[in-house]
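pls ignore typos typing on phone
iron/sulfur cluster + seq
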Amino acid sequence: MDAIYTPPETLATLSGLDTGLLTAVVAGEARLTPEQALEIFHELPTPELGRWADARCRTVHGEAIRTYVIDRNINYTNVCTARCTFCAFRRDADDHDAYTLETEELLSKIEELVAIGGTQILMQGGMNPGLELDWYLDMLGAIKERFPSVHVHAFSPPELMEFIEFFGAEGDSLFAKARWVLGKLKAAGMDSLPGGGGEIFAAPVRRKIGLGKCDHEAWLTIMYAAHSLGMFTSASMMFGHIEGYADRIDHMRCVRTWQDKSLGVDAGPERCEGPGIFGHYKAFIAWPFQRDNSPLGRVKDWGSQAGDTGDFPGDVVATLYGDGDPMAHPEFGRRLRTSGTVDYLRTQALSRLFLDNIYSIGASWVTMGPQVGQTALAFGANDMGSVMMEENVVSAAGTTYCIDEPVLCRLIREAGFLPAQRNNTYDILRVHEGAESPDRAVRDWSEHRTKRLHIEQREQADAPLTIGMTD
Ligand code: SF4
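k done
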């Protein structure tokens, strides 16, 4: 996608269900308004929503290939001073199972990744005040010295907020301070910034579930600072908890608006380095909240209590512009509405139609399971994410699946596409057409069974839960 980009026209007077509007959206000739998106979410039957999202995906990505990447989640520390209510990963520094990886441990994990053809690490951790800037610079330097071709996709906007404070970043604005920190990390070996900590942007929801310090403005500003340094990033959304449906659309609206800025539309004065140098969001991935072991997961489901009648509290509070009144419903934040398969697929399909300026929409099989991830390829997703060697963060909070490259290729092929390995910038590295393809070379599929981390880890009484965030 070019740095200078012109968004399509909005046809705001049309209904979101108008076939002409949806045909134009599929062709990239019209942009949905938030109001049209909400109408689609509420009223378009699921098979139809899937068909439109699939058609849009085929416009952007063609008919033949769907991709995956081989990377490894590495969580360098679980010590964290934040207390997000949805998190089962964090530990206090003096907890018996608190850890910070030594550089050699980290390098040996990367060695294992490279041995299976991996190209990237996704490296994130808690907000650990015990780690100084030099610790990060030395770690990144050691990775690049030993593995110069491994792409380092690292940290997240909430971590960057802490770095700005911990490291005394220089600058007179958040944007300038973020650039100061990111510039040093980039020089040491960081290649791109994942979209962790996006959750839901709307302030009423964000204040209730944690991450209040990194509000949506800060999250998006830090991403913009990364783009200003030429980095590519991803955006994420964790839904299916206390938020209303309109909050999901507001979240996507914020991503789309800031992506326009990074692509050269409505550029602010910070866009000082000129076209072609800016990065932008390459991908959007949304996944449902996993409730096990987290404080938020202990909140009662809507409908379970006497008096739970009428509209879900999150819907009463939510607006399409993130400015809802948290006092509009007395039970807001005290009731959950978790997400099932249909809700997940509908949300992902809508993201494909609404986010007309985001190249890749990722399927979230890590939380939803391989078969749902495979189905997501028919609901607007073009990418199956990563072969999962290790996963820690989501597996601490619920179901997490681990699958290898042959299984991932088989899932894509069975869905009707050619599987292809990509790199972090979505360049195709290998298209698997022949008999030597990872899935076609398998003789015994029983040796490639899917692992379910949260179950298997707890069966090993002595094994600490290992945690991995997704991007
Ligand atoms: S989600 Fe991240 S920032 Fe929040 S408590 Fe967990 S580790 Fe800390």
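Residues 269-275, 454-471 have pLDDT under 50 and may be disordered. Residues 80, 82-84, 87, 89-90, 126-127, 158, 210 surround iron/sulfur cluster (CB under 6 Å). more later
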